[in-house]
Task: structure prediction
Amino acid sequence: MKKILFAVLFGMFAVASNAQDVENVKPVKNVIVMIPDGCSLATISTARWYQWYKNPNAPKLAIDPYICGTVRTTCSNAPIGDSAPTTSCYMTGYPSLAGWVSTYPKADPKNDIYPMDSTRAYQPLTTVLEAARLLKGKATGLVTTCQFAHATPADCSAHNHNRGANAEIVSQQVHNSLNVVIGGGTANMTDEHANYLRSKGYDVLKNDIEGLRTNTNNNIFAQFRHGDMTNDIDRDPAKEPSLAEMTEIAIKKLSTDPDGFFLMVEGSKVDYSAHANDPIGMVTEFLAFDRACGVALDFARKDGNTAVVILSDHGNSGLSIGRRDWHGYSGDSKEKMFSALTKCKITSDEMAKKVKETEFENMQNLFNEWFGFTLDDKELEAIKYCREYKKSPVPEDERKQYRSSLYSSGLVSMIGQFVTKRTGLAFTTGGHTGEEVLLAAYHPDRDSRPYGMLTNIELNHYLCNLYGFSHDDLDRLTDENFAQHTSVFNGMKYEIKDKVLTVKKGKKKLEIKPNTNIVKFNGNDVELPTVIIYVDKKDMFYLPKSLREMF
Result:
């Protein structure tokens, strides 16, 4: 009864803010969700100016014809979200807490933006990706420029109350029947995981760009670099593919499935650059993402049965075009506002690496070569006293005591500030922001596109209905596949030891480990359609109700 009442209340809140009938859409065969992580509207505007200034024949972005609204993204108890709960809500239909990956949040009655059901805290929540496979037989894929266990890809394919629990998240992803995963994070792929995937017919590639380009297997995990991939403007094309190329390869493989596919593509490092207030990284990473959108949109237009939904998970950095201390900026030309950005050949992150390797007397030459400007005395002083700059002529003890009121102490952010002050741009923070984010969409039936301002809850309902199922179906799958072990095995003998659940009845014995879809029944491996989750905070396993039927 309590759950029914909660559903009614939750539905009332969702309907109250409805901008469009997100339930009444024409289903399609394929859905591609594209997320520029931590990307504010001002970032997109700046990227558009940057592109147009560099190429007068390119005033528009690939996404521009399809911009149709905005999305309000939140945590369950706070207006400003982080990547874990915001994309979780897109995938599950429920907002959650900062750092939580597709998991029902603890209730926070004084602050909850929507009423949350305290009895469901920590329950894993079925995602659109999982439901697409379970209900419609879709192939599924992830493409990302960060490590593949990072928050946004994890939101689609894993469940945890700690986004940093990489080992648990990777194990779930490996065992969650994903067909294609291309991105960063070779360190995440252990030999055990690789051997398991190969035993299931997958190809597992590490730092093998030619192997990726020539591969003919439609089931593949391909990772580049130990952690996150290199920023697009900094990368070596002979070693790392672009986001556009990874997207094209993923679509080619997934589209061979006769039942269709779900693909999530993340331009991950827009967010990283925004945290560092690095305008070069922000605009060039977004433009790399926009080119990937162009690939997806080209496929969708030709295919005729594919929807593409493009939206950020949250804002970041409070970027503005125009700032208080740039007097008269409103009358300045586009050259004065943006030309300094276009002269930078690398990001501030890459420049910081070069600075660390450069003798101080050669610093001006370095900035002239890569950024096209000369440092002033204050900027040279800031580098000289930076604790990260080990080649400084100033002794380390003196650098430790140095405090600058002008520049950040971190080398990457400091260099970003050098660039920013030569433009008309400004930042308010190095953290996330709470404004609405861009929504763009392609659907072969224009009337089935989402319009206006949607909440992240409504966006989930829209994604569900693109496949012809509903958010209620996600709840049903959650109830079936993520039930508490105390309920599933009620009245039976069971115990948890070293995070292994053992259930016995007569001579029958079931052994259950977390973060996998494999259980042992009487010593034999049995594969399940979903992964099993263990929540340490409750000493509770969440698993399929059908396991009881084994006895």
About this structure: The longest helix spans residues 279-303.
